Amino acid sequence: MATSRLERIGTIFTRVEGLLTRGAMKPDDRPLWFDVYKAFPPIVEPKFARPKPEAKAIRQILYKEDIIRAKFHAQGHGIGINMLSPAGETQVKKLIQQYEKLKSEGVPENKLIEKSVAAVSTERQLDAKISPKIH
């Protein structure tokens, strides 16, 4: 019974195991991963001749906040982050909250970005006047 060329290749594990059993490699010289692989072998053996897995299409996952966020970023808003205040909300999060609030109040779609930016900017200016700057 002839074996094909691909069946004779084996895995790196079987090669190291063969070296150890035939004495070509001392047990003290075995790789660190060898004992772990032996104790916890993979479910599907990683062979060279294994067929490639079927390529699956990647689904686009977009949340409604992502679309709103993209609108703000397209107009250059929402870039700044206050790294001195890790507990505070990001400017983009505030913009999205303001956008949702104004949308629920019936503000036209073409004015939502502009009015959200204005409201958040006003809020930031008030916060800057109230809280002292950290130096």
Relevant terms:
6 helices; ribosomal protein; structural constituent of ribosome; mS23_dom
Mind sketching the topology for me?
Blueprint: H1 5-9, H2 12-21, H3 32-39, H4 64-74, H5 91-104, H6 109-130
Helix pairs in contact: 4-5, 5-6
Architecture overview:
With 135 residues, the chain is mainly alpha-helical. Helix content is 52%, strand content 0%. It has six helices and no strands. It has helices at residues 5-9, 12-21, 32-39, 64-74, 91-104, 109-130. Helix 5 (91-104) crosses helix 6.
Q: N-to-C SSE series? A: HHHHHH
SS-derived structural category: mainly alpha
Beta-strand percent range: under 5%
Helix-residue proportion: 40-55%
Pfam families: MRP-S23
InterPro entries: mS23_dom, mS23_dom_met, Ribosomal_mS23_met
Family: Belongs to the mitochondrion-specific ribosomal protein mS23 family.
Protein name: Small ribosomal subunit protein mS23
How would you concisely characterize the structure shown here?
The chain has six helices and no strands. It has helices spanning 5-9, 12-21, 32-39, 64-74, 91-104, 109-130. Helix 4 (64-74) crosses helix 5 and helix 5 (91-104) crosses helix 6.
